[in-house]
Amino acid sequence: MSHGYVPVQWNRNKKVYDIILWLGIVAAIVANVLIAGASVPAALAPSSEILVLRALGDTGFILLNIILAIGPLARLNKRFLPLLYNRRHMGVSFFVIVLAHGLFALMWYHGFGVVDPLTSLFTSQGTLETVSDYPFQPLGFVALTIFFLMAATSHDFWNAVLGPRFWKSLHMLVYVAYGLVILHLALGALQAEQSHIPGWVPFASLVWVGGLHILSLFAEPGDVVDVGNDAWVEVPAPMTIARGVGRVIEVKGQERVAIFRTENDEFGAISNVCRHQAGPLGEGCMIDGLVTCPWHGFQYQLQDGASPPPFEEKVATYELKIENGTLFLNTTALPPGTPRPLVQLAEQNSEAT
Question: Of the four listed, 21, 49, 230, 255, which is most buried by Cβ atoms within 10 Å?
Fold first, then answer.
């Protein structure tokens, strides 16, 4: 969080995650080389350098599809949240793989001529006149440049310097880079001597990533409440909120509110927007009694919306009240970090009955 900066904030879970991740990466590269080398006659088999080059690209493409799928998968099923918490580590690992692929390709195809490699990359390949001969390597280079900007600014220091809004806009360029990668692969697949990837793979990726994002839109949690002119609105079916998790209340024309139910059947309401990168707090859960953002694990106290010491992030809080066994939310936000009591709906219901 914002209390000081260290290069990487590793804990035991992140170390285990990274070890498993890199074992999987190495296994994928080795398997790709072995399978690709054995799938063609020895006389037609590419050199070992080309096999490694392609294996790095294929592994990077698989990682990119996983990274882009984690967000919607976590929204569809909370079992994927651990992947979301550590997605940044996977993203940086992905960049290392595609950087190795890009540098290897640049030097292998353009590093032995009289023209410098970058100039050769943009001037020596293909023609713009036909799709089947379109120069696909420059598209990969532009995508790699975007991935570099994202990896270089992945640390919280840059989020603080650039501001959450600009930082998020910058990192949304991943979808532009993804489109360039799809074109890079699809055009490369048209040139059989350049790629062993079947032509349908880029389109299958579009269906996979695009389909998950569309499904997640329909599964987006939240109850839309039309408040009219009333400051207090009824919270729909609060007792259906599972203990230790939240529900998003979308008040029309206002910021979303996250309502959480504790293990003791107490309810509290805070802003749905995490101060780190505007993550949806209401889609997270409570860990050790703290509201935990599903994106990067930032935590807040439900009683006052403040992060536990020594951290200093604060989000707005909202008042709740109970009348005749019904839970009501005051839609006027209190200043970030304002304490207000939690309410216990179970006790009120038992008294009313």
Answer: 21
Whether 309 and 292 have beta carbons less than 8 Å apart is answered as no
3-state secondary structure of 72: helix
Last residue of a domain, one of 218, 252, 282: 218
Listing DSSP states for 306-351 in one string gives BPPTT---B--EE-EEEETTEEEEE-SPBPTT-----EEHHHHHHH
Tell whether 177 and 249 lie within a shared domain: no
Q: Which of 171, 149, 154 is nearest to 8 (CA)?
A: 154
Residues 56-76 pLDDT 10s: 999 999 999 999 999 888 878
SS3 letters across 149-186: HHHHCCCHHHHHHHCHHHHHHHHCCHHHHHHHHHHHHH
Q: Which of 196, 218, 240 is the last residue of a domain?
A: 218
* Residue 105 CB neighbour total at 10 angstroms: 22
C-alpha dihedral (249, 245, 65, 91), degrees to nearest 10: 100
Of 335, 329, 226, nearest to 282 (Cα)? 329
Residues 252 and 340 in one domain: yes
How many residues are recorded in the chain?
353
Strand, coil or helix: 54: helix
Say whether pTM exceeds 0.85. Answer: no
